[in-house]
Amino acid sequence: MKNIISLILGGGRGTRLFPLTKYRSKPAVPFAAKYRLIDIPISNCLNSGLNQVYILTQFLSVSLHRHITSTYKFDTFAAGFVEALAAQQTLDSTDWYQGTADAVRQNLRYIQQRGIEYVLILSGDQLYRMDYRDMIKTHMDNDADVTIGTLPVPREDVSGFGVVKLDENGRVVEFAEKPQTEEDINHYRTSPEWLRSRGLEPRGREHLASMGIYLFRRDVLVDLLTRYEHTDFGKEVFPSSIASHHVQSHLFDGYWEDVGTIRSFMKANLDLTTENPPMALDTEEFRIFTRPRYLPPTRMAGAMITDSLIADGCTIGSGTVIENSVIGVRCRIGRDVTIRDSVVIGADYYESDQEFQRKSPTTPAVGIGERSVIQGAIIDKNCRIGRDVRIINDSVTEQKERDNVTICDGIVVCAKNTVLADGWKLGP
């Protein structure tokens, strides 16, 4: 589809995902043992036949740029590209991106290329599988100016989303960003009968939320962003353009998760360890692409592993028990370790014996030391967890920080490069 360009928004500061975003942007956060969040929308694009992709970045974007450059390469004879565009000062603008619409506005020159008729705008921190060709068909069939991807959500979740009100043909007649009052929430209710007529079973979900996926006619998008100074699509662009443009809704009823908080990140990872995961990774139809690392197979010496994902290049010692957890690449786990309901992101490198010997005698090696216990925690990259360490939030504390270890939403998070000496314990 040479007449469509995809723009993936790299997101803001990612404060709700801190400390995972301490050294990286949200889309660069590792996910599911071997991927990064940005791999999801890029893979959806490539699987949908869309191979002209820009990623708009701003905060802590070095690792994201490195990942994109080393992963998504097109050969000389293959048309297409996946490129990262960093926020930059120009003669027209000297400011950082002020919102989703402003990010696109500051990069209009990249979509005003010859032959481009449509622009698909995506978020870089959502988990879902979607064939965008279905959304493009909805857009074409209805001769729309703008099409918004929408998802049915239960009433209790409405206040966290932009929601739409539709006419009988699925055209958006009203849009509200995160309605709070009972009156507003009731106003945006969608008839269960109408949802069923579109092949969607409500199951208590009678509101349609914006997924942050938008398809624009290129000329309409350029006009809206140059005529007005709107900075956000949900808060300003859609509410003001519905009266003057044909804004259509495209219904989606598959798995979709906004990974915006530590709790949602943890849940999305651990959901993949279940017997019937909501988003299966082992499918040929819609593969998730990422950087090839050429690592050796994981070696397990008498360990017991249940309902878990284990990436390549790991070594797991005898007597170790891993349950309902995600273990990332190059993870070295000692003997008699217990890991439950946790995400261990792994390491960027293997530490050689010579490198380890040069460090202080009290500094543990990269990985998880013998007899340590980790439960309900996220261990970021390159952490050095010593022997007999205990990481369990026994007191069910919601927020706390100590020794580069943070408790967020009741989940313990060890930031990247954290060092915990032998015998370190969290809790009373």
Automatic annotation (TrEMBL):
Its EC number is 2.7.7.27. It comes from the Bacteria. Pfam families: LbH_GLGC, NTP_transferase. Keywords: ATP-binding, Carbohydrate metabolism, Glycogen metabolism, Nucleotide-binding, Nucleotidyltransferase, Transferase. Residues 6-274 form the Nucleotidyl transferase domain. It is an enzyme of class 2 (transferase). One of its GO terms (biological process) is glycogen biosynthetic process. This is Glucose-1-phosphate adenylyltransferase. The gene is glgC_1.
